[in-house]
Amino acid sequence: MSTGVASRAPARVLPAVAWVCGAGVVLAQIVYSMADPADRLPTTVLSVVLFCVASTLDAAARRGWRAAGALVAVAGGGGLLAEAVGVRTGFPFGDYDYTGTLGAEVLGVPVLVPMAWVMMAWPAVLVGRALGRGWAVVPLAAWALASWDVFLDPQMVDAGHWAWAHPAPGLPGVDGIPLTNFAGWLLVAVLITGALHARLGPRADRETDLRAGPAPVLYLWTYGSSVWAHAAFFGRPWVSLVAGLLMGAVAVPFAVALWRAHR
């Protein structure tokens, strides 16, 4: 009896800790939006770290520690490699440089950056697996991940965390961010989400992918809060509209799929 209780404990603890981290993400992002721009770095760091932990624990709770390890290795390692190559060669994102404001770096890339790839890659894979079938899973997952950057990049450029050498041409209404960046994100997102989807296996266990958890909730929170924040706090209403449409193409159907699965 005691062995059974002990074996069930991690299954209860992991989601609980992940939910606590997720609540911390929401609180940190609310504080970020209301803080003076000069005082936003601590909440940026806290938000990314907590979101990364929440996604990793969500992966472990759904698919086990091997899946969580694969997430960190593929998304974190792959994101780091892509960024390290990017800042040195300009491929695949375009010519850009980090300004040294985001703290400790590895291979010229702030540690927070691969953590950000981890935090959003997992919910993006869940989006793709929830909405797609067969070959469509990876393109949907990649879009779910890459479209988020249409919100992220203007916010981080405006905050002074990185800068583009050739910021034009860009998406309509998304000034200062080159189209090469979005193309590079799509390429890297396809590789990362494709590898994670292959690691998880066929989309047969859809109930596990659609199970309630912090990763899906945080993905939808990120979408909704980004639409609102760019319009109301960051002075980027066109980013709110354009990115809202692009990310909403998967975020809204994903919200509907979750609602139907749990009604």
UniProtKB/TrEMBL annotation:
It comes from Saccharothrix xinjiangensis. It comes from the Bacteria. The keyword Transmembrane helix applies. This is Carotenoid biosynthesis protein. InterPro entries: CruF-like. It holds the Pfam family Caroten_synth. The chain crosses the membrane at residues 12-35, 41-61, 68-87, 107-127, 134-152, 182-200, 212-232, 238-259. Keywords: Membrane, Transmembrane, Transmembrane helix. The keyword Transmembrane applies.
